[in-house]
Design brief:
676 residues, alpha/beta, Alpha-Beta Plaits, 4 domains, 5-stranded mixed sheet, 4-stranded parallel sheet, 43% helix, rod-shaped, binds adenosine-5'-diphosphate, binds magnesium ion
């Protein structure tokens, strides 16, 4: 047998296959599965080798240590006995004659092929004594290595209650060595993987799955072999051992004692409950027969269907029962008794080791803190849904503290977070769409600016000549000359053209701002006083700024404010209205809100507001250059302009609010130090 230090872990994970469904976490009675970086790892020190995780993993991501190589080396080196677990008829139910299975195993190269059933007969006798003795304290059966490991790791106080009797496997190994020589190597073949780590007395443990792999590799077929019997000593009723109540049936205990004094619990939930009740003293007189699987026939080393013809529990059971019935019919009772007597002095004792791996309950505060991280603040937040693999939210939190679990395993919390991310994503998508729209707009404006500058430049000279000559002609014409009125019209219209061209040039002007230290309230007061507002239009100013000083191009920013105020006045209905100017600030910027109770901007016009020449005003009244110029100036100050408007009286009071945000840090060093 290779030493423990060299051994591979009994159970390990194939990382690429693990889809982190937490089923193994849920099914592991020892809580020996650690979720780390979204991967389920087996913690060897905590693992009891029950193989539940192997059975439940739909992705076949959990695998056990294979020992085929070891068995092959042993066979090549000397005499090796195979001792076969009594569950073999359940594995090979498709083979009509079980003696063929014996021959197949022999064909691998084993010198002896014996059945563990005889070991079970001997062990059963030992148990019988314990169960029937009135003075004996209640015992926990120790034939299931996973149960023994579970008690040693997690209930060390119960070690004293474990029956100090070897398992049928070890008993049979001792029988074989007594009969055939101490140097005999022994390989156990069975349905259990925990057996691989049970005893140093066994040189290798093969599961039925591994046995079938060898048959396949060596191309061994039942057609190629003749049936042979197991090598002696032959087992008796011990062959029924692997099915439920097996040990007790073997023991031949009187029925009344059986029902009153022995509790049988199998499967991961039942055996844990029974141990807990036993430890708490709720059951104090009864012996416990515990199996980690629902009978050894359900062990993780059994081949799955269709490799093995029987996959169902009761079919497997009946295969074993049929085999035992047939066997007992043909059993030479006398010979069996003689064999039993000849091994009656065989030492069947064993000891156990305290492997306490329990960790104390973490700090209450730490548990509460972990629960909070998963959005569990109040008792009603604890859903205890079990999706994480732990029975309660608290157990999950404790596992996180112990480094076994992660917060993301909490499904309800993860779903909630996901919903929040989606909402955040939607908001940033919306922002992105708005920014894209603004970018398109400014590109459009930049293009139009270039075009306007070109046209304005070309028009300026001829326009100057028209203005000059029409003025000369007008001055030369006598007062009552009818042509004078025409010339006056030409001069007037040429002046208008000049204004438009001036506006265009203004609009196209780029990066030409002269920044001064400006007091925002004062520039606003000046702008308000420079617009002419009808008596029925009131303008109010409220400044809430803490620091009113900011660097601005005084003239251009005055133009921005007066133009906005003029637009507001022009939007007023006949009965007039109010314009409220509110100035606020923060450490980084000053914000100016100009809010009017005018007619509002129709929804379909909103996207065109900053487009040059867009106007809803009468010919001669509006040029449609005000807002594009304002936009240009604000942008040159690295600021922002936004508009909100309602033109539909049915939806509420009409009106428009322009909001201009100007950053304090516009990175241009002022020329004049004096605040204007
Ligand atoms: P103009 O004033 O020469 O028409 P602007 O660029 O200043 O050009 O304004 C463009 C258009 O935007 C206006 O014709 C008007 O339809 C609309 N507008 C601007 N400001 C307001 C406001 N405060 N209320 C309602 N509509 C406005
Ligand atoms: Mg205007």
């Amino acid at each position: 047998m290779i030493t423990a230090g060299e051994k591979q872990p009994l159970v390990s994970t194939i990382r690429e296959r693990c889809r982190v469904c937490y089923t193994c976490v849920r099914e592991c009675p020892a809580k020996a599965i650690k979720i780390s970086n979204g991967q389920a790892e087996v913690i060897t020190e905590r693992c009891i080798g029950c193989g539940n995780c192997i059975k439940v993993c739909s992705q076949n991501a959990k695998v056990f240590r294979r020992e085929v190589d070891i068995a092959e080396i042993l066979i090549s080196e000397g005499k090796v006995a195979a001792i076969v677990a009594p569950s073999f008829p359940a594995e090979f139910s498709e083979v009509p004659n079980h003696r063929l299975v014996v021959s197949l195993i022999r064909a691998i190269g084993f010198h002896y092929v014996a059945e563990v059933a005889f070991g079970a007969d001997l062990v059963a006798r030992k148990y019988k004594k314990a169960f029937e003795s009135q003075n004996e304290q209640p015992v926990i059966s120790s034939d299931c290595p996973a149960i023994v490991s579970y008690v040693e790791h997690y209930h060390p106080a119960l070690i004293e209650s474990l029956a100090p009797v070897v398992s049928p496997m070890v008993a049979m190994a001792r029988v074989m060595r007594k009969k055939y020589g101490d140097d005999l190597k022994v390989v156990f073949i069975g349905p259990c993987i925990a057996k691989k780590d049970e005893s140093e007395e066994i040189d290798a443990v093969l599961t039925f799955r591994e046995l079938r792999d060898i048959f396949l590799k060596m191309k061994l077929d039942t057609k190629a072999v003749k049936p042979t019997d197991f090598d002696p000593p032959t087992g008796g009723k011990g062959a029924i051992f692997p099915v439920s109540r097996g040990l007790l049936n073997t023991v031949e205990i009187k029925e009344d004692l059986f029902d009153r004094n022995i509790i049988i619990a199998e499967g991961k939930n039942d055996f844990q409950d029974a141990i807990k009740e036993f430890e708490n003293g709720h059951i104090s007189k009864e012996h416990l027969e515990l199996l980690c699987c629902e009978g050894c026939i359900m062990g993780p080393g059994m081949s799955p269907y269709p490799i093995s013809a029987s996959s169902k529990r009761f079919r497997k059971r009946s295969s074993v029962s049929d085999y035992v019935m047939d066997k007992l019919e043909r059993l030479d009772q006398k010979k069996w008794e003689t064999n039993m007597d000849s091994f009656s002095t065989l030492n069947l004792e064993r000891t156990f080791t305290n492997r306490d791996t329990r960790s104390g309950r973490p700090d209450e505060e730490a548990i509460v803190a972990e629960l909070k991280k998963m959005g569990k603040f109040e008792p009603h937040d604890h859903l205890d849904c079990g999706a994480c693999g732990y029975d309660s939210c608290e157990e999950h939190a404790i596992a996180i503290i112990r480094g076994l679990a992660e917060h993301e395993m909490c499904l309800p919390n993860t779903i909630e977070k996901l919903h929040n991310y989606i909402t955040e994503l939607n908001i940033s998508n919306e922002k992105l769409a708005n920014t894209q729209e603004a970018l398109k707009q400014s590109e459009k404006l930049a293009g139009m600016g270039q075009l306007s500058a070109g046209i304005a430049h070309e028009l300026n000279n001829p326009l100057g000549i028209i203005t000059m000559y029409s003025n000369i002609l007008k001055d030369e014409a006598v007062a009552d000359d009818p042509i004078r009125a025409d010339l006056e019209l030409i001069v007037e219209q040429a002046e208008r053209c000049k204004k438009i061209v001036g506006g265009l040039l203004n609009f196209a002007r780029k990066n030409q701002v002269t920044l001064d230290e400006v007091h925002i309230d004062r520039i606003m007061e000046r702008s308000i006083s420079s617009v002419i507002n009808p008596a029925n239009v009131s303008i109010s100013l409220e400044s809430k700024v803490n620091d009113p000083v900011i660097f601005l191009d005084y003239d251009q920013m005055s133009q921005v404010f007066t133009n906005l105020l003029k637009n507001s006045i022009e939007a007023m209905p006949e009965e007039g209205g109010n314009i409220e100017v509110v100035i606020t600030d923060s450490a980084d910027e000053i914000t100016v809100h100009i809010k009017d109770t005018g007619c509002g901007v129709a929804e379909e016009h909103m996207s065109k507001l900053f487009t040059p020449f867009f106007t809803t005003k009468k010919v001669g009244k509006g040029t449609g250059l005000g807002l594009p110029i304002i936009y240009g100036i604000v942008k040159m100050h690295k600021g922002n302009i936004a508009v909100q408007s309602n033109a539909n009286a049915a939806k509420g009071p009409t009106g428009t609010t322009f909001t201009i945000t100007l950053p304090r840090n516009n990175k241009i060093i002022p020329e004049s130090k004096e605040t204007r």
